Amino acid sequence: MNHVDAFAELKPALSQDEALAEANRCLMCFDAPCTRACPTHIDVPAFIKKIASGNLRGSARTILSANIFGASCARVCPTEVLCEGACVMNSLHHKPIEIGRLQRHATDFQLARNERLFQPPPRRTDARVAIIGGGPAGLACATELS
């Protein structure tokens, strides 16, 4: 195995047509078990419905408002045991919706546009906070506090 293969994507990106077809397979469950199974509680049916209607910006906004690391998590989250593992399609003996790949599709679209989705609110205080550590928890905390 060469060095390039060592870093190959485990789950390749979806094309626009593949993403549209996959999004339209979703049943858009009211009390979605996929959302309950997500550690960050992303509203999975909402972001998938936006992909199905061609609103990739809105889909990315839904994802990133629940999880600022949505683009990274789309690649590394064990979706097969979390959201996809809880997908009702499994109980219907069908392949679960590829939620992680759809999440990647929406967030990659937004990252490629390099457009800001969120604006920080005006500062209401002169208080300052220091975050110790630059890992995912520290960065997420800083994002929430800002």
User: How many angstroms does the end-to-end distance come to?
Assistant: 43 Å
Give the helix proportion (percent range): 40-55%
Largest sheet: none
Q: What share of residues are in beta strands?
A: under 5%
- Poorly predicted sequence stretches spanning 5 or more consecutive residues: none
Structural class: mainly alpha
SSE string:
HHHHHHHHH
Radius of gyration: 17 Å
Number of strands: 0
Annotation field: number of helices: 9
Average of the residue pLDDT scores:
91
- Can you tell me the overall shape? globular
Please describe what this structure looks like:
The protein is mostly helical and 146 residues long. The model has no long low-confidence stretch (mean pLDDT 91). The chain has nine helices and no strands. The N and C termini lie far apart (43 Å).
Topology:
Blueprint: H1 3-6, H2 16-25, H3 33-37, H4 44-52, H5 56-66, H6 70-76, H7 83-86, H8 99-113, H9 136-145
Helix pairs in contact: 2-4, 4-5, 4-8, 5-8, 6-8
Which descriptors apply to this entry?
single chain, 146 residues, mainly alpha, globular
Kindly summarize this structure in a few lines.
Helix content is 51%, strand content 0%.
